[in-house]
Structure formats: C-alpha cells, structure tokens
Amino acid sequence: MRFDEAYSGNVFIKSHPSFEESKAVIYGMPMDWTVSFRPGSRFGPARIREVSIGLEEYSPYQDKELEEVKYFDAGDIPLPFGNAQRSLDMIEDYIDGLLAQGKFPLGLGGEHLVSWPVMKAMYKKYPDLAIIHFDAHTDLRDSYEGEPLSHSTPIKKVCNLIGPTNVYSFGIRSGMKEEFEWAKEVGMNLFKFEVLEPLKKVLPTLAGRPVYVTIDIDVLDPAHAPGTGTLEAGGITSKEMIDSILAIANSDINVVGADLVEVAPVYDHAEQTQVAASKFIREMLLGWVK
C-alpha cells in the first residue's frame, strides 16, 4: 500500500507535500457499512477536508500556525464497499505501516467501528496503551442484532484487548443498562454526561503513558453537530470540545494517535458539523503532534 501519495480528492489545508518529511499523516476511513440508524459518514472525511479551506491557519488558542507542524494528507483508504471485515483488515494493515515509519496517525471517519483496527495496531506498538474516548454512546455492546461487527461495539472490543481499566470514556449519555453495569463491574472509567472536569482529573494519572484519543462527533449536542448518524440530545458544546483538546495538549500524556469519526455531512446543510470537525483537527494537529 502506497503511503507517499494521496489516494484521491482534496487535502486538509496546509498539508505538507512530502510524506517522508511529515511527522503526522491524515488519512480517511470512508466506511459506514454497519450503522444502525442513518448512513452517510463515509462522506465525512472528504467534506472535512473540503471545508478546512475556510479555516484560519493560525490558532489563537495555542498561538501557533499550521505551518509549524508537518503533516501529510494521504487521502482516503479505498475500502471495499459493504465488506466490513476486509475494510477493517485494510485499516489495520495501513496503520501498521504508518507506525513502522514513525508517523503519528490522525484518522477521519467514517463510522466508529473504524477506530477498532486502529486501536489494535496501536496496542501492538504500545503495550501500555490507554484510550481516551469522547462519545455520546457507550459503544460497549458485544453485537448489534447478532452482528459483532457494529459501530456500537468498538469500545467493548478494545476493553477486552487492553483491559477495561485502561479505557476512559467521557460525555456518555446513551447506552443499554447492561453496558453501564458492565463498565462499573469491570472497573472501566466511564464518565456520564460531563467531559472537561473529569478529563482534567484523569490526565495527571496518565502522565507519561502513550494514549490514543478517539472522538465521536456526536459527543457534541445536536445543536452544535446535527450532521451525524445517531443524534443524542444533552451533549457538550463546541467550546467544551476545544477546551478538552487543549487540556490534553497541555498535559504530560504522550498522545500517539487519534481519530475523529461519525461526521455525516448530508444531514447538515449549514455545515456547522463539518466546520467544527475541521477546527478540532487543526487544534489536534497543533497540540498533539510533538
């Protein structure tokens, strides 16, 4: 699989022309094969890139400009439509390759199941890995209507892989009663409703550890992000998400990779979801890529 050229389409603003010289690699995972409500997140990566042209290259939050970070946008992985297992295998292979070359992977989804093969690959390189997970949903099911490959299962899968005490979920406000009970029984760090304050308490305990961060855009309230597949009222604001990204940037943890998923542009003609997502990516690049 080629790494040194974009697969297709537009690139994120200020993408560096050289893969070899770049520390971070942006890549898309255009998959929504297992969604349980509204499809469309496979179009998220491309649209996040397209609206990024409207971003200022300067972040007043961090007093940095995008040209200070070298990142290469590799485009979207050409996933086979409808074939979930093959798509997941391709994503894992791709991340294995990026990590072997010392790159910081920054993924654009796609449904949340695409985070699962990425986290598997990260764990192979970082056996003391911790996960920070922002989401409206627990994603702790074993299966959805009998299907274990579902966007409602990735966090349960990674809990089983790295141990539930190494997984930290924030902003959770939806899930089956059994999922919440399981999280409590096994010692998973699940924080309902709130994000920033519990995050600030957790970050010092993860100092020095490699951490992978996965952001489901539906952690935001639908008033701030209507363009997603499974809306949940009662979420956080865009400002709270930016503040959380900055809190991570200013902590002593070692962010080794990240993704932002579940942007479905077709449901947001005002494009506030896509614009928010692109701004989050800017702050992640400036704050997390060392």
Automatic annotation (TrEMBL):
Coiled coil: none annotated. Gene3D superfamilies: Ureohydrolase domain (3.40.800.10). GO terms for molecular function: agmatinase activity; metal ion binding. Keywords: Hydrolase, Manganese, Metal-binding, Polyamine biosynthesis, Putrescine biosynthesis, Spermidine biosynthesis. It is an enzyme of class 3 (hydrolase). Mn(2+) binds at H112, D135, H137, D139, D216, D218. It catalyses: agmatine + H2O = urea + putrescine. This is Agmatinase. It comes from Gottfriedia solisilvae. The lineage of its organism: Bacteria, Bacillati, Bacillota, Bacilli, Bacillales. The gene is speB.
